[in-house]
Amino acid sequence: MVQVATEFWVFSAAMINAEAGLHPVPADPRELDASLRAADLCWRRFPYLAERYGERGERFTRSDTAWLATLIRLDPPVVTGQVCWLRVFLATRGIPSIILQTQLDILSDELDAAVPTDHALHGKLRQAADELRDARQVHIPQPQVAALSDAFDAATEASWRARLPHTELLLASAVVDEIDGSPGAVATLGGWLTNRQRFQAGWIAAVDATLSQARAEAGAHTQRVQT
């Protein structure tokens, strides 16, 4: 459940996205503009979002990012709790946590540029992004992610990789999200990416292989850590 410190904000997300409800967004125009810039940058970083969710998804990306900016004035444990809640909410709907991590990284940078005197506050968002990154690497360390990327690149056509860049990272993230408590994260993402009416056989085979390898890597790494 979203918790907010309402004394800091008087503007609601409905100003940005009529469907987003009344959760707060920054009243400071510098913070709000930085939030919208960050949302647009994250949206462009992952074309998958536009392909799957269209204009409605873009509106929610903007309102969600603006809400994330309001977390800077909450205590770090509360920030962590709110981000974890959003991680599960999004991952079960086909948006792996690597997108949320990227969103937080970009947002903290944009807020720093807009309001440099509040760098320490923005650091709470960086910390939350780092926690998401660390949680993923507990299960699939970076060398294994790089190997997944190499294998995916070798198995897919350049035109499809250009259309949907970072697909293998999304798949690995979904595997970890499901392990960490987001039920259906893999099926929700993988089902869309293997739709035979949308994708050709070679792409679908590469997606399935990447998911299998990500699961194997996560299981093997967990076993190594436990022993």
Characterization of this structure:
The protein is an all-alpha fold. The protein folds into two domains: 6-139, Orthogonal Bundle (Globin-like); 142-226, no CATH class. It is built from ten helices and two strands; from the N terminus they run E-E-H-H-H-H-H-H-H-H-H-H. The protein has helices spanning 29-45, 47-70, 76-91, 97-114, 119-139, 142-155, 158-163, 167-179, 185-193, 201-226, and strands at 11-12, 24-25. Strands 1-2 form a two-stranded antiparallel ribbon. Helix 1 (29-45) runs antiparallel to helix 4 and helix 8 (167-179) packs antiparallel against helix 9 (185-193). The longest helix is centred in the C-terminal third of the chain and has 26 residues, at 201-226. The N and C termini lie far apart (37 Å).
Short descriptors:
mainly alpha, single chain, 2 domains, Globin-like, 227 residues
